[in-house]
Write a structure and sequence with these properties.
The chain is of the alpha/beta class. It has 28 helices and 15 strands.
Length: 640
């Protein structure tokens, strides 16, 4: 006797009861109404990493990377062992706790029971929904997808920000988004478009560059009898894509728009049907999807007195506080960043790059799609925008650089759209060099390091600005002590202060001086101070120790970016005067008018080679004067 065929709509669904372990939101472990105290962020990172590979062996090195990122402490492996022990004690209340966290060769493993992990529930519900849809049970499949979407309580692994876990969270969010789009398609096929409009409208705001969502919104509006609104949704999508990315909508959106104009319902349904989205556009930009690039230089040691600047960088790259999950399982909107980019500027040798690299490593978890570094001033001078674009595109997996700067810039914006990438652009020299490298959307973030202020660039693109100045005397002494040993500084406190002043509080100069002292452990600080004081110009310092070439090299770069009149004024201010200079005196030094002299003074201030005092006069720092003595050639005008 043949067995009766089972009705797909009556097929059992996976158990979607309350999970004990939850990753679709902040990591939590619950038993009934009780939420267990897992501990601090490190303990939660260890548990989350184990749960992401539940049932598999997770190596200790993997746990260290996921917990601390690229710069773990020397005791990281011991700390992992200690946290595993504490987690085992905490999880004793969980059913079958004796089998939860086990030790395996080279690492650890966790084995929750079936249904105890929300991510497993999500996979089971979406998998069953696909099978039901294939069997013709679209209504049941849509219901199960709705259950799966409701498991999300907020951004996956919220609060865990190391690159390893941020990348895992990004993958989970993408799977959730695909499930949302899948459910919308099923609801459209079932003829239920009206309740989809508002959730889809909110989703297009949260993900403005995702063409599939714009297309689904257009289809839902059209199927709800709102043709004019559907056409308006296309115009909105086109404006976003063209203004932000420099790209026209892809074939799917264009075909939808034409079909809605013609009231061609069959084409509308065909464009948005099926369990998988169509490609967004033809592969005119071929991306090889390389491994996530992490190109940041090594973390510099001895960062001192930069807490305020680090806080400003955090604010510039920060996102709006996320709101609770709204109805219909929609994710909260990822708010726009406080700024699309930030400019870090300051005098040569002040530690701008050290600050930016230190912050970038600390914030790397916010950018799971990659952290790119590009030096914009090479041995032969500033890097041309076309070459800079080609290098960035190669890092992002795009072959064949275009010789056209506008085309390559549009291609870069397209590749970066929707990707959380950090761009660190070091030693920028001009607006024209930087502007083509800026992304169009709000996901990627740019840190520009420059010797000049680039005020027009920051105003035009609403950038935040972070100024890095010389260290205070106390902070500079602290840095010197960290480099050569506190005992040497305490033994000669006055000489240490004199050395700090000779170095103008610049970290680069202090590090070079510290290297000289470390190479000669028996040399007194006062001896080095006396040698530096009596030496005339930085060239004499270089003859004493070639390491000073690093300081003169960075000053050479700033000097070379100046136009000739500004360079001439700097030379004369550094040799013909000893105190502050007014604009009228500067005019006399150059033999020109006061208006022109004021313009050149502004350029020197923007390059951080001259300081403007509160009384409106301008001062050249002693260290810059020493440099100018090496460069000067022009005589002083008789008018002075």
């Amino acid at each position: 006797m043949r067995a009766a065929r089972q009705d797909p709509d009556s097929a059992p669904a996976p158990d979607a009861g309350p999970a004990l372990f939850r990753l679709l939101g902040p990591l939590t472990v619950t038993i009934g109404a009780q939420t267990l105290a897992i501990g601090g962020v490190r303990s939660r990172a260890v548990l989350a990493t184990l749960l992401l590979d539940a049932g598999k062996v997770v190596s200790t090195d993997q746990l260290v990377e996921a917990t601390w990122g690229a710069d773990p402490p020397a005791s990281a492996r011991i700390q992992v062992q200690n946290r595993i022990g504490r987690l085992r004690r905490t999880l004793q209340l969980v059913p079958s706790a004796d089998a939860l966290i086990g030790t395996a060769p080279g690492g650890y493993t966790i084995r929750p029971r079936d249904g105890d992990l929300d991510l497993d529930q999500f996979r089971a519900l979406t998998g069953t929904a696909e099978r039901l849809e294939a069997a013709g049970a679209a209504a049941r499949a849509a219901a199960l997808l709705g259950q799966a979407l409701q498991l999300r309580r907020g951004p996956a692994l919220d609060g865990l920000t190391t690159p390893y876990l941020a990348s895992a969270a990004h993958g989970i969010e993408q799977r959730w988004l695909l499930a949302f789009e899948h459910r919308v398609r099923l609801e459209l096929r079932l003829g239920r478009p009206a309740h989809l409009v508002e959730p889809l409208r909110a989703m297009t705001v949260a993900h403005p560059f995702r063409e599939e969502l714009h297309g689904l919104l257009m289809a839902a509006l059209y199927r709800a009898g709102r043709q004019a609104d559907a056409l308006a949704a296309y115009r909105t999508a086109r404006r976003i894509l063209t203004e932000q990315l420099g790209l026209e909508p892809g074939p799917m959106l264009q075909s939808l728009n034409l079909a809605i104009l013609r009231r061609d319902g069959d084409t509308v349904d065909a464009e948005v049907s099926g369990p998988l989205a169509r490609p967004r556009r033809p592969s005119t930009v071929q991306v090889r999807t390389p491994a996530v690039r992490r190109e940041l230089p090594a973390v510099p040691a001895g960062l001192t007195e930069r807490a305020q600047q680090l806080s400003l960088l955090d604010q510039a790259a920060g996102t709006v506080q996320r709101a609770p999950v709204p109805p219909h399982g929609l994710p909260p909107r990822d708010g726009p960043r406080a700024a699309p980019a930030v400019l870090v500027h300051g005098p040569p040798g002040s530690g701008k790059t050290a600050l930016a690299v230190h912050w970038a490593h600390r914030a790397a978890g916010q950018f799971p799609d990659g952290q790119l570094y590009l030096e914009l001033n090479g041995p032969s001078g500033p890097v041309e925008p076309a070459d800079a674009l080609a290098r960035l595109l190669r890092s992002l997996g795009v072959p064949g650089p275009s010789g056209d700067v506008l085309e390559a810039a549009a291609r870069l914006r397209s590749v970066l759209a929707g990707r959380r990438v950090l761009l660190l652009l070091d030693d920028a020299s001009s607006i024209a060099q930087v502007e083509p490298l800026l992304p169009g959307g709000s996901e990627a973030f740019v840190v520009i390091i420059a010797r000049v202020r680039l005020g027009a660039l920051t105003a035009r693109h609403d950038m935040a600005r972070v100024q890095v100045g010389p260290l205070s005397t106390a902070a500079a002494r602290q840095l010197l002590g960290a480099l050569v040993g506190a005992a040497r500084v305490h033994a000669e406190p006055d000489a240490a202060t004199d050395l700090v002043r000779l170095c103008a509080g610049l970290p680069l100069a202090l590090r070079i001086a510290a290297g000289t002292l470390l190479d000669r452990p028996h040399r007194r600080i006062s001896t080095l101070v006396q040698e530096l004081r009596t030496a005339h110009g930085l060239r004499a310092w270089r003859r004493m120790d070639p390491a000073w070439a690093a300081l003169t090299g960075t000053l050479d770069t700033s000097h070379g970016l100046l136009p000739a009149p500004a360079r001439q004024l700097l030379h004369r201010m550094g040799t013909a005067t000893t105190g502050p200079v007014s604009p009228a005196t500067a005019a006399a030094l150059t033999g020109g008018g006061t208006t022109a002299a004021a313009r050149w003074l502004d350029l020197l201030c923007a390059a951080h080679l001259v300081r403007e005092d509160p009384d409106g006069r301008f001062t050249v720092a002693p260290l810059i004067r020493r440099y100018v003595h090496d460069r000067v050639a022009s005589p002083v005008p008789s008018a002075l």
